[in-house]
Amino acid sequence: MLRIEDSATRFCDRIPRRSFLQISGLAMGGLSLPQILQAQQQNGQHNSHKAVIMIYLNGGPPHQDMFDLKPDAPAEIRGEFQPIPTNVPGIQISELMPRVAGMMDKFSILRSLVGSDGRHDSFQCCTGHQFRDPKPQGGWPSMGSVLSKLQGPIDPSVPPYIDLSQKMAHDPYNMKGAGFLGMAHTPFRPDGEVMSNMSLNNISTIRLHERTNLLKELDTFRKQVDHQLSTDSSANFTEQALGVLTSSRLLEALDLEKVDPKVRTRYGIDDPKVLGFDPKMGYQALMSRFLQARRAVEAGARMVTCSFADFDYHSDNFGRGRKVIPLLDQGVAALVEDLHERGLEKDVTVLVWGEFGRTPKINKNGGRDHWSRVHAGLMAGGGMQTGQVIGSTNKWAEEAVDRPVHMQEVFATLYHNLGIDTATTTIPDNNGRPQYLLERHQPIQELV
After folding, report:
1. What angle (nearest 5°) sits at the alpha carbon of residue 327, between those of residues 322 and 333?
2. 224-232: average pLDDT
């Protein structure tokens, strides 16, 4: 907890008990915030600021109704939506995605994704690994945590890995953490109470610095116990920890109240009732997250993840699709257009995908069920070769027939765009053994 405020019972030194407990809250899982910052910097290779924004379409989006329509298939397969042309001759996508269609030259479609284990879980989309892979002790880290380990923060007041997803009721949907890399590389989730705690409530910056002695005493005690940090480096990283509190860089990036209304309108307005779900379920189509993601990478984040709506359409696939897919179209188009206008299209890679696809045949409830044999995704930015479709499926979108693209190839491409060679780069696990980031190291050659 980062809240520092003036209230509650005071000690004899006139420091409130609540403030004591909440400053102590900077120590999480045996690590203080200065130690977290130090761990990040010790492993950082501060190169140019490349970044990734991943939009996770939890539930498994219907590839036949978005990116791989089959208008000549029987009615029970082709569904209700029609394909429309894009601004790239020969490429068609769903009629529900006119904005993306109008700027298809800035996107690439992956129509032949394979390698899904078919589980309702963000694990593969976060880590690149399959469930059946041998897992090191502590589990595989998510990509954002790997970037935190390898490259560290751009700015000490901005976490390298930020997760803008809502807390989702189906826990496996929630974005994965640092695995064996530990708490120093866990994603930062700036939602709810955390956002309010990022501001200095009822305390001036001067008074905050007056209380650094307390934090130093706590860290001194911790050093006496574990002897892991030297006095000099501890002092340095204590200053950086305080920088997280005193800097407004991240808070301003995520606060959209002062954003130009025209920009916010381009991205769309949040409507928590759009899906008819209880907001506590965490499946809303929040348009503001696209804008926050762009602002977070500009502020210094290396990876931003964000879930969007829910696509587990076992019933009413087309009714739900008519509500959600146009919103996704607006948000993704606005994000990529914004990145181009701001000159970030070569530095920021955008990936839009889910954990698997949907069945070609529509069920008796008008829905599509789980389908792991093939699915589709959308990529943009990162200096990639865009305006193309990679791979194809058979006449009913059942399986890849041309250029199957493994999910790990997508990760290899993301790492490539960040300047990381997965064929040579390793990270040590809890036993000190070097672990490669992926088993498949070849990026998608059509893109790079």
Report:
1. 130
2. 46
User: What CA–CA distance (Å, rounded) separates 105 from 88?
Assistant: 6
Give CA–CA dist 147/127, Å, rounded: 12
State the Cα–Cα distance between residues 117 and 53, nearest whole angstrom: 23
Q: What's the whole-number mean pLDDT along residues 129-144?
A: 92
Query: pLDDT tens digits, residue range 240-258?
Result: 455 555 567 888 899 898 8
pLDDT in tens, 25-44: 444 444 444 555 555 555 54
Signed CA dihedral, 157, 163, 168, 172: sign only: negative
Burial of 84 (0-12, 13-18, 19+ CB in 10 A): middle
What residue segments make up the domains of the chain, in order of their start? Answer: 51-193+249-436
What are the Cα distances from residue 358, in Å, to 2, 65, 318, 367?
A: 42, 10, 13, 9
CATH of 51-193+249-436, one of 1.10.10, 3.40.720, 1.25.40, 1.10.357: 3.40.720
Does the pLDDT of residue 267 top 70, yes or no?
yes
Q: Which distant-in-sequence residues (6+ apart) come within 8 Å of 188 by Cβ?
A: 159, 161, 162, 163, 194
**Contact at 8 Å (CB) between 422 and 438?**
yes
C-alpha atoms less than 13 angstroms from C-alpha of 390 in its C-beta half-sphere: 27
Mean per-residue pLDDT of the chain? 84
pTM: 0.82
Residue 181 token pair: 């890399």
Q: What is the mean pLDDT of residues 421-426?
A: 96
Question: What pLDDT score was predicted for residue 211?
Answer: 57
Pairing of strands 348-353, 51-56: parallel
- In the block, residue with structure tokens 């409507």: 271
